[in-house]
Amino acid sequence: MSTVTILGAGAFGTALAVALARGGAAVTLWTRDPDQATRLSAARQNRDRLPGVDLPESVSVTAEIGTIPAEGPVLLALPMQQLAGFLAAQPGLDGRVLVACCKGIDLATLEGPASVIRRTCASATPAILTGPSFAADIARGMPTALTLACADVARGEALQRGLSTPVLRLYRTTDVTGAELGGALKNVIAIAAGVVIGAGFGDSARAALMTRGYAEMTRMAEALGARAETLAGLSGFGDLVLTCTSSQSRNFRFGEALGRRGTFDPAVTVEGAATARAVAKLAAQRGFEMPITRMIAALLDRETSIEEAAESLLTRPLKQE
């Protein structure tokens, strides 16, 4: 039986724990909250995030980071904006295989999760697990395919074997930059898609937005050294389709609320909001053309209105596709 540690007992971390345990792994699920650890251990369910889904017996829950296994990969199911601070405070994770399961760009450093791992844990092997997936689907055993990105081929192959299950299929790539950018940038486009629907612009407008958003994602990723085919895969196009078309997506729901000028629960993590601001800043520094991202960042900062943003995009110069 393989050993896997998952740091972060939110919906996605819990779902991965359930799926990997069902696949035969011995899973340690860590939460920073001792009270949550007690509740999870007693109820054998994450009733706040995944009600009705039982934790298999091979999942052990702890709030003590010092008690996690010394072997096996460590999956980082933490919010992107907390990743750097967490890793900097955990020197014991250096030298491990660290698999980031978060999607976004660090607002302070403009780094993706793999870069954050390399900077804070210089001896660790960074990897990315990303792609079109909702925690509820994974936890309930629905078939799901994800991208596993690792520059180290041998360790990537070992991770692919160790983390795949009969219903969780992992496709491997060495293009870490492409995988992390696909997962980050699609969240921004998902917010924009939600704005389109919330504002009443319709499904045809959403399809156009998704298409131009995908072009925007690919353009930036290639400029930063990623491969276009990575963006055309699960970590880019696949995840984009899912998050732009389903109300299960937090980023889409947030954008929809923004478009209809409604409210959104501030306790819900919306990675695309911080990523939009980070990418807009990076695009300005590097001279990337990112009109959709720029408009979302401006909307979030109340520097423009929905009507002004739509007009700005619709009056861009006509050109060859």
UniProtKB/TrEMBL annotation:
Organism: Allgaiera indica
Binding annotation for NADPH: F12, R32, K103, A135, R250, V270, E271
Cleaved signal peptide residues: 1-17
Binding site for sn-glycerol 3-phosphate: K103, G131, S133, K186, D239, S249, R250, N251
Domain of life assignment: Bacteria
Gene3D superfamilies per the UniProt record, alphabetical: N-(1-d-carboxylethyl)-l-norvaline Dehydrogenase, domain 2, NAD(P)-binding Rossmann-like Domain
Domain Glycerol-3-phosphate dehydrogenase NAD-dependent N-terminal stretches: 4-152
Sites where the protein binds NAD(+): G8, A9, G10, A11, F12, G13, A135, R250
Catalyses which reaction(s): sn-glycerol 3-phosphate + NAD(+) = dihydroxyacetone phosphate + NADH + H(+); sn-glycerol 3-phosphate + NADP(+) = dihydroxyacetone phosphate + NADPH + H(+)
Cross-referenced NCBIfam families: PRK00094.1-2, PRK00094.1-4
UniProtKB keywords: Cytoplasm, Lipid biosynthesis, Lipid metabolism, NAD, NADP, Nucleotide-binding, Oxidoreductase, Phospholipid biosynthesis, Phospholipid metabolism, Signal
Record lineage: Bacteria, Pseudomonadati, Pseudomonadota, Alphaproteobacteria, Rhodobacterales
EC number: 1.1.1.94
Protein name as it appears in the record: Glycerol-3-phosphate dehydrogenase [NAD(P)+]
Glycerol-3-phosphate dehydrogenase NAD-dependent C-terminal domain location: 175-310
GO MF term (any one): NAD binding
Keyword flag NAD: yes
Entry function: Catalyzes the reduction of the glycolytic intermediate dihydroxyacetone phosphate (DHAP) to sn-glycerol 3-phosphate (G3P), the key precursor for phospholipid synthesis.
Alphabetical GO biological process terms: carbohydrate metabolic process; glycerol-3-phosphate biosynthetic process; glycerol-3-phosphate catabolic process; glycerophospholipid metabolic process; phospholipid biosynthetic process
Active site positions: K186
Family: Belongs to the NAD-dependent glycerol-3-phosphate dehydrogenase family.
InterPro entries: 6-PGluconate_DH-like_C_sf (IPR008927), 6PGD_dom2 (IPR013328), G3P_DH_NAD-dep (IPR006168), G3P_DH_NAD-dep_C (IPR006109), G3P_DH_NAD-dep_N (IPR011128), NAD(P)-bd_dom_sf (IPR036291)
HAMAP family reported in the protein's UniProt record: NAD_Glyc3P_dehydrog
Cellular component, GO annotation: cytosol
